Amino acid sequence: MKKILIINLILIFVVIELFAQQVINPETQFSTKGLPKDFVVEGEYVYIATNKGVIQILNLKTAELIREIELPTIQNVDKKKVKPVIFSIDKIPNEEFYLITCQGDNGKTYTYIYRFGFWNKIENLENYTIRKALFIDTHTIILVLLSNEIIKYNIFIDFTIFKKQITESTFSDFSLSEDKSNIAIADEGGVVSIVDLFTGRVIERHEDENVDKVFQLDYKNNKILTGGQDRRIAFYDRNIENSYHIQKDFLMYSVSLNSQATIASCQTNENCDIAIFSTISKLDKFILKGHNGLINKMFFISNNEIISIAEDEKLIYWKF
């Protein structure tokens, strides 16, 4: 009887340990100029784009602000001169070479290239409602319109290589594969499409796990993670054609994967806490507490480091 009691106690402690979620507080945090909307990471530097039309360059190790780059002023729909909201930012590694999508004059969307200290607006793209743009290489960019059309564009000769409609639903988010040969793109219907960037052809569709709008997705190591309005996190493994979803109690506004796609993160509740969980066991391991606004983006620097931005005018660096 005594042995059975000891065994039961051991099992209880094992179960408690298995499901325990360690609370993590910020390692460092940085106040941003306005609400941070997007960022890119290069080595120890992070390039933060805000709703006040500024790019802030931050040293992650020292939390030191290195430099700020301001976008040109625009005229909003009320005819007032304001700094534009930045929607997305990308950067060519080891160069001062940025790609920006932002609010434009009178409700338009502008796409800018910043190089050698000068802003160059891509005039041919002014009539499109662009929500996100990324570099494929130094000459070519991929843009997605609100209408869920993609444009592959050569920025040096101002030429549209192709323009393709992906689905009839409104665009939600997209992410490039590591080799930049294809993208995963999600829409308001919960469908994730894989698009070949050489031809613009849809080569896969995934629509088994999300049943409503996808807010955000990440795409690493041939695996896709989505967060949706249906309060689901969906995980698709293209290598073995397998998928699953985890039902949550909160709208899944933001998600991210580590480089191997074995660890993931998501905003987990109305308190704006971030859960770190295993994509294999599906169990939460850590809860990150420190944000006071909805999470906009997260990025794994390593398997035990992540940075995040939210609607609270700060970037947080976490270690767990």
Give a verbal description of the structure.
- There is one protein chain.
- This protein is mainly beta.
- Helix content is 6%, strand content 53%.
- It contains 1 helix and 31 strands.
- It has one helix at 2-19; strands spanning 22-24, 28-31, 36-42, 45-50, 54-59, 64-70, 74-75, 81-82, 86-91, 97-103, 109-115, 118-121, 130-135, 140-145, 149-154, 159-165, 171-176, 182-187, 192-196, 202-206, 214-220, 223-228, 232-237, 242-247, 255-257, 263-267, 274-278, 284-288, 295-302, 305-310, 314-319.
- A 5-stranded mixed beta sheet has the order 1-28-27-26-25, with no helix packed on it. A 4-stranded antiparallel beta sheet has the order 2-31-30-29, with no helix packed on it. Strands 3-4-5-6 form a 4-stranded antiparallel beta sheet, with no helix packed on it.
- A hairpin with a 5-residue loop joins strand 7 (74-75) and strand 8.
- The radius of gyration is 21 Å and the shape is globular.
- It starts with a helix and ends with a strand.
Produce the secondary structure layout.
Layout: H1 2-19, E1 22-24, E2 28-31, E3 36-42, E4 45-50, E5 54-59, E6 64-70, E7 74-75, E8 81-82, E9 86-91, E10 97-103, E11 109-115, E12 118-121, E13 130-135, E14 140-145, E15 149-154, E16 159-165, E17 171-176, E18 182-187, E19 192-196, E20 202-206, E21 214-220, E22 223-228, E23 232-237, E24 242-247, E25 255-257, E26 263-267, E27 274-278, E28 284-288, E29 295-302, E30 305-310, E31 314-319
Parallel strand pairs: 1-28
Antiparallel strand pairs: 2-31, 3-4, 4-5, 5-6, 7-8, 9-10, 10-11, 11-12, 13-14, 14-15, 15-16, 17-18, 18-19, 19-20, 21-22, 22-23, 23-24, 25-26, 26-27, 27-28, 29-30, 30-31
